[in-house]
């Protein structure tokens, strides 16, 4: 009887309570959108007002780097006032819901890799992490983006590679830097496929053709959006990225240093322990990541490229983009 109660708690009660924690942590502060969010809101408003995917009517400039989030807000705005919809409120609810799903997927992923306690702790920490809450109520696409990345990994470790491919593709349409996780997933999928002993009788080409559905599901959203952007805006690369490359002139590696500070202080320990905590966090959190990633990848995804996502995101990707980024971007 006790086992049945425990099973019921784990299956239904805990995820329900987890979602309540996520929602409470985000809805309690209320609306706190940052200035960049209103760029996306204006695009959504113009779409619903019949002006097209534009910031200023008649000027086809792609000034938002999150087309999927913009289209999602536009779709939901159709049922909540059209062009007069309260997009900050819609964004708050969308982000809170997305973060709820992310927390549940983190918890379920911990169960999948036989680390239920770690998954539970990670989900709870995610639910109340200051930066998680801040970006969620800030009204930007971060919550949706992280949900799609988390879902991609969740589907992948459950061998639902087609859903993983589609989810990772949507992640790229939400934010361009999502391509990093997509590349790691594709490389690992091909590596696993080529090493599959059950398909040794097949040629390498035949084995690659077996993932054709994954390739199609990954490419279709990207081709649809980039094709539209090329025709409508004249360039698939957002003009805002091109503009930032000319507008922001920062000291070398300053944005990269700021990024490291974020990773070193996920719970803003510097406010409690002082500035020296930044240095301690740069040692502590990578150490904990290495321990956890090593155990997970050893048991579930041997030699997987997924463990390279965070280091790859920090070092080569942001070192390359350092001149384009400033605080808050």
* Strand portion: under 5%
- Number of discrete domains: 2
Query: What is the number of strand segments?
Result: 0
- Quaternary state of this entry equals single chain
Q: Could you list the spans in which at least 5 consecutive residues all have pLDDT below 50?
A: 317-329
User: How much helix is in the residues?
Assistant: over 70%
Structure, explained:
The chain is mostly helical and 329 residues long. It has helices at residues 2-27, 37-48, 67-77, 87-112, 116-128, 130-137, 142-157, 161-174, 179-194, 204-209, 212-233, 239-247, 254-264, 270-273, 276-299, 309-321. Helix 7 runs antiparallel to helix 8 (161-174), helix 8 (161-174) packs parallel to helix 11 (212-233) and helix 13 packs across helix 15 (276-299). The chain starts with a helix and ends in an 8-residue tail after the last helix.
Secondary-structure blueprint:
Elements: H1 2-27, H2 37-48, H3 67-77, H4 87-112, H5 116-128, H6 130-137, H7 142-157, H8 161-174, H9 179-194, H10 204-209, H11 212-233, H12 239-247, H13 254-264, H14 270-273, H15 276-299, H16 309-321
Helix pairs in contact: 1-4, 1-5, 2-3, 4-5, 4-7, 7-8, 8-9, 8-11, 13-15, 13-16
List key phrases describing it.
329 residues; mainly alpha; 16 helices
Task: Briefly characterize the structure.
By secondary structure, this protein is mainly alpha-helical. The chain contains 16 helices and no strands.
């Amino acid at each position: 009887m006790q086992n049945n109660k425990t099973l019921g708690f784990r299956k239904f009660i805990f995820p329900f309570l987890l979602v309540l924690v996520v929602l409470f942590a985000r809805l309690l502060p209320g609306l706190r959108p940052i200035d960049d969010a209103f760029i996306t809101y204006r695009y959504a408003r113009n779409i619903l007002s019949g002006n097209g995917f534009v910031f200023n009517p008649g000027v086809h400039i792609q000034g938002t780097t999150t087309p999927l989030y913009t289209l999602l807000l536009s779709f939901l705005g159709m049922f909540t006032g059209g062009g007069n919809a309260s997009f900050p409120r819609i964004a708050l609810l969308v982000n809170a819901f997305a973060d709820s799903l992310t927390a549940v997927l983190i918890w379920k992923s911990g169960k999948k890799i036989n680390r239920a306690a770690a998954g539970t702790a990670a989900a709870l920490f995610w639910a109340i992490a200051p930066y998680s809450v801040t970006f969620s109520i800030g009204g930007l696409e971060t919550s949706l983006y992280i949900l799609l990345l988390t879902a991609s990994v969740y589907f992948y470790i459950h061998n639902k590679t087609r859903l993983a491919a589609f989810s990772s593709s949507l992640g790229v349409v939400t934010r361009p830097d999502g391509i990093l996780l997509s590349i790691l997933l594709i490389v690992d999928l091909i590596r696993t496929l080529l090493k599959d002993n059950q398909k040794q009788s097949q040629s390498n080409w035949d084995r690659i053709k077996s993932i054709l559905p994954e390739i199609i599901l990954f490419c279709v959203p990207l081709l649809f959006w980039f094709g539209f952007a090329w025709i409508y805006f004249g360039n698939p690369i957002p003009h805002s990225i091109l503009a930032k490359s000319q507008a922001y002139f920062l000291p070398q590696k300053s944005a990269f240093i700021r990024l490291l500070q974020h990773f070193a202080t996920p719970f803003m320990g510097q406010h409690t322990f002082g500035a020296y905590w930044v240095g301690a966090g740069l040692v502590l959190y990578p150490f904990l990541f290495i321990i956890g990633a090593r155990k997970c990848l050893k048991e579930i995804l041997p030699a997987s490229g997924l463990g390279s996502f965070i280091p790859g995101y920090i070092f080569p990707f942001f070192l390359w983009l350092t001149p384009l980024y400033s605080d808050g971007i």
